[in-house]
Amino acid sequence: MSKPCIICVAITGSLPTKENNPAVPVSVAEQVESTHEAFEAGATICHAHVRNEDQSPSSDPEKFARLKEGLEKHCPGMIIQFSTGGRSGAGKARGGMLPLEPDMASLSVGSNNFPTRVYENPPDLVDWLAAEMRTYSIKPEIEAFDLSHIHQAAAMNKDGRIPGSLYVQFVMGVKNAMPVDKDVFDYYIKTVERLVPDAEWCAAGIGRHQLTINEWSIAAGGHTRTGLEDNIRLDKDRLAPSNAALVKRAVELCEKYERPVADWQKAREILQIPLKAA
């Protein structure tokens, strides 16, 4: 299979702390350093959250601005993707950093259950986030936690609320949401190919499922996501020493399935994301 594979690294997230794994990058400086290592290892998308000094999640645009500045300096060409997820803020605060014009931003187009709460994505907020992304020329990454989210993204693409070619990420393994199930995974691919045949797709597995989903994605010709946000371990006995270590594991799977790893130029070409003027 000759299609290049784009590797996304989710560097921090909102949940894992240094008590869980000392390698989790929390400060902006740590995040830039960790991303730089992952970039050199083969990751070409950085999925970014920011944290407060006490490690709690934040949606502070100033922190996102400093992170973006550091990534552009130390990881030139890498695709910067900000999270608009619900753990970092509420309502429109979730999109308060979008005027910073990152290359991409995550977009959940529907609600679903999380381990201890409902991940709420009401239609009016989804439409507002999508409109902000259009305003600032940001490509959404559709985070599909459920089959209905793929159908909703396709409808939003058809009516222009999400213009251009879609990038859909299947998120599997979150407790109380979609389990890691190969038949479901295969049907997700089939559904994307049927509804939005020009779309690119990616997949992320949570916790111990990360490696499984990495392999399924790479073997099936899709793109993949790894990183300490989703999984802090190499295996049940070893913590991951860095984001780069998890990226290297995905690179090894690309080699196993004879998939070239997309460099940042190829990743931008595949996703139709031009470099923005400084």
In short:
The protein has 278 residues and is of the alpha/beta class.
Structure description:
The chain has a single domain, classed as Aldolase class I (TIM Barrel). Helices cover 36% and strands 18% of the residues. The chain has an eight-stranded parallel barrel, surrounded by eight helices. 47% of the residues are buried.
Layout of helices and strands:
Blueprint: E1 7-10, H1 28-41, E2 45-48, E3 50-51, E4 57-58, H2 61-74, E5 79-82, E6 104-107, E7 112-113, E8 118-119, H3 123-135, E9 139-144, H4 147-158, E10 167-172, H5 182-195, E11 200-205, H6 210-220, E12 223-226, E13 233-235, E14 238-239, H7 243-256, H8 264-271
Parallel strand pairs: 1-2, 1-12, 2-5, 5-6, 6-9, 9-10, 10-11, 11-12
Antiparallel strand pairs: 3-4, 7-8, 13-14
Helix pairs in contact: 1-2, 1-7, 4-5, 6-7
Q: What distinguishing features does this structure have?
A:
two-stranded antiparallel sheet; eight-stranded parallel beta barrel; 36% helix; TIM Barrel; 8 helices; 18% strand
* Amount of helix: 25-40%
Q: What is the terminal-to-terminal distance? A: 36 Å
Q: Which strand order spans the largest sheet, edge to edge or round the barrel?
A: 1-2-5-6-9-10-11-12
Q: What is the CATH first-level class name?
A: Alpha Beta
Major sheet size, sense and barrel closure: 8 strands, parallel, barrel
Query: How many β-strand stretches?
Result: 14
Low-confidence stretches: none
Q: Number of DSSP helices?
A: 8
According to CATH, what is the topology?
TIM Barrel
What portion of the residues fall into strands of 2 or more residues?
A: 15-25%
- CATH architecture descriptor name: Alpha-Beta Barrel
Cα-atom radius of gyration: 17 Å
Summing up helix and strand content along with how strands pair, one would put the structural category as alpha/beta
CATH homologous superfamily designation:
Aldolase class I
One letter per element, helices H and strands E, the order comes to EHEEEHEEEEHEHEHEHEEEHH
